[in-house]
Amino acid sequence: SMASSSSQQVPESPVYSEEGYADVDWDDLGFGLVPTGYMYMMKCSKDDEKFEQGQVIPYGNIELSPAAGVLNYGQASLCNGLFEGTKAYRKEDGRLLLFRPDQNALRMKLGAERMCMPCPSVDQFVEALKQTALANKRWIPPPGKGSLYMRPLLLGTGAVLGIAPAPEYTFLVYGSPVGNYFKGCSAPLNLYVEEEFSRSSRGGTGGVKAISNYGQVLNALGRARSRGFSDVLYLDSANKKYLEEASGCNIFLVKGNVISTPATNGTILAGVTRRSIIEIARDLGYQVEERDIAVDELIEADEAFCTGTAVVVSPVGSITYQDKRIEFRTGDGCVCRGLCSNLVGIQRGLIEDKKGWTIEI
Ligand code: COI
C-alpha cells in the first residue's frame, strides 16, 4: 500500500516572487503540470467501505504495491481507477470559487458503483477539494490568468492477484495551475473523425470517468495530431455512424436556434460543463436537443464546439470525415462565444450566480 505521509517526498520550500503567490509565470500557463505544494489523501479498506482520516499532505510521489488493483486492470475493469477534473478560480476580491464540485462527487460515485469501488461521500469529496484549493492558494492564478485544475483520483491500491476488487482504496486530490487546454487559446479546433478505433462501447465504461477511457484514445489522438489535427472525434462503436465525443471533451452542433449534443446513453461522458452549457443555452432561449447525431448531419451545422472542464468551451473550425473537411462559422458573434462568456463569467464570479453553482471558500 501507499507510504504514510511521514515518508512522502517533501518538495523544497517554494519561492514566492510576490506576496501570496508561488513563483509561476502566470502569463505563460498552458495545460501542463505545474506541481503545487500539497495534495489530499484519504484511504478506505474494503472491509468497512468507509473513507476516513483524510488529510492534506505535502505533494510528492506515492508508493504502490506492484499488485495494486489499479496497476493490474488487465485482469478486469473491477480493479480500475477513476478520476475527476474541477477548477478553483480566484475572484477579483481574493476569495476562491469552486464550480459545481458536488457534480464531480456524484459522477465519481456512479463510476465507483460501476467499478465495484467504495467512494467518498459527496461531503467528503467537496471538503477534500476545498482543503486542496486552500492549501494550494498560492498556486491559484491571479484573476483572469487561469485556474487551479484539481484532479481527484480514486484508485484500488490494495494488492490483489485474482480478479477481485482491491482490499484497499485511495482517494487523492492534487492540483496544477492551468491556462488554456489547447495551444493558441481561442483558435478554432480542427477535429478528425476516427473510424478505426472506438472510445467506448455499449455496456462498457464510456459513461463514467474511468482512467482506461483516456489511455486508449492516445493512439488515435497521436495519429490525428501528427496530421495537424487538434483532436479526434469518436463515432459509436457499433454503427460508426453517430457522434460520441472527442478525446477529453463533449461535442455540440449549432443550427439556427437549435443546439444539439449526443445523448448520454452510457457511452458518452456526462460532462459537468456539458450540462451547464445546456442549461445556460436554454436560459438564453436556444432549443437544446440531446439525441443521437449522425455524422452526416455535420454538413448542415452552422457551428460546432467542444465542452469540458479542461477545454471550457472551445470553438471547432473544421471536422474532417473520410477526407472531406467540413468548415464551421467561428469568431465574433458566434453562439459558442456567448455561451462561453456566460459560463466563465459565473465560474470567475463576474456574473451573479443565480443557480447556486459556485461555492465560495
Ligand atoms: C477535464 O476536462 O477535466 C478532463 O478530465 C479531460 C481531461 C482529458 C483533461
TrEMBL record:
Similarity annotation: Belongs to the class-IV pyridoxal-phosphate-dependent aminotransferase family.
Protein's recorded name: Branched-chain-amino-acid aminotransferase
Organism: Tripterygium wilfordii (Thunder God vine)
Shown chain mapped onto the complete sequence: 370 to 730 of 732
